[in-house]
Amino acid sequence: MNPILYFLRDIRKTGAVAPSSRYLANDMVRFLRKKTACNAAPLRILELGPGTGTLTKAICSAMRPEDRLDMVEINPHFCRMLRRKFKQPGIRVIYGDLLEFDPDAPYDYVFSSIPYESIPESVTSLMWKKKLSLCKPNGLISYYKYVNFNFFRCKFEKELVRDYCIDKTLVFRNLPPAQLFTLRVRQPETSNMHGSGMEFKMNVPKKAVIKRVGKNSAKSSNSKAALSA
Ligand SMILES: C[S@@+](CC[C@H](N)C(=O)[O-])C[C@H]1O[C@@H](n2cnc3c(N)ncnc32)[C@H](O)[C@@H]1O
Q1: Res 152: pLDDT
Q2: Distance 86 CA to ligand 1 centre (A)
Q3: C or N terminus of the chain, fewer CB within 10 Å?
Q4: SS (H, E, C) the chain
Q5: Ligand 1 atom closest to Cα of 72?
Q6: Closest ligand 1 atom to the C-alpha of 97?
Q7: Over 80: is that where the pLDDT of 217 sits?
Q8: Tens of pLDDT along 49-66?
Q9: Domains within the chain, CATH numbers bracketed
Q10: From atom 14 of ligand 1, which residue's Cα is the shortest distance away?
Q11: In the structure, which protein residues have their CB atom closer than 6 angstroms to any atom of ligand 1?
Q12: Which residue has the higher pLDDT, 3 or 130?
């Protein structure tokens, strides 16, 4: 099926009317390109909500052979599509809910396309705490929000952007236009988050398990419930 039809059919779950434009995708990977151009160490990259893979394609074009990319996607149709499209070594598609993802090590760079617009504020906060825990200290998180009047519904997210944002870019050539944010996750000691009642864990649990979400567990997870609400 045409990827746009998937988006339209499942609009509440995907949170978008269409995949991201190549302009948005190329802007999203600007900092990754800079990092791969000057950083000799191999990078661990994570993409949350890759959908049909528009952003994935841009990430792959910025990656070096020694870098690794994991993707976490809750929609099984998209997972099958992604596995067919991206067969290079070092790339993994993990079917499941971001909130249940439990990798064995944190990431240097996290890309996220999770549609917060359609998720309750409490679940959005949980997702942000999870994302912070998946990121290495000083790691980067790039994500976008569609431009609308109710821009930051989640206070936790708003404060993170205020404290950690290193770049904001408005991308008009996307449907709908989007604001792209890149955050640098500072060490907990220097973070304003602490002492403000917004504690988060920087260390990923030692358990080296990536959970595959089955039908039942996905149904019972908070975000899935919220997405289908
Ligand atoms: C707005 S679409 C973005 C797709 C693609 N990255 C793009 O930019 O075109 C959001 C994607 O996030 C996925 N998603 C939503 N909630 C999720 C969750 N809790 N865990 C993993 N993926 C999720 C949806 O299935 C969808 O593919």
Answers
A1: 85
A2: 17
A3: N
A4: CCHHHHHHHCHHHHCCCCCCCHHHHHHHCHHHHHHHHHCCCCCEEEEECCCCCHHHHHHHHHCCCCCEEEEEECCHHHHHHHHHHCCCCCEEEEECCHHHCCCCCCEEEEEECCCHHHCCHHHHHHHHHHHHHHEEEEEEEEEEEECCCCCCCCHHHHHHHHHHEEEEEEECCCCCCEEEEEEECCCHHHCCCCCCCCCCCCCCCCCCCCCCCCHHHHHHCHHHHHHHC
A5: 21
A6: 20
A7: no
A8: 999 999 999 999 999 999
A9: 3-227 (3.40.50.150)
A10: 49
A11: 13-16, 19-20, 48-51, 54-55, 72-75, 78, 97-98, 113-115, 223, 227
A12: 130
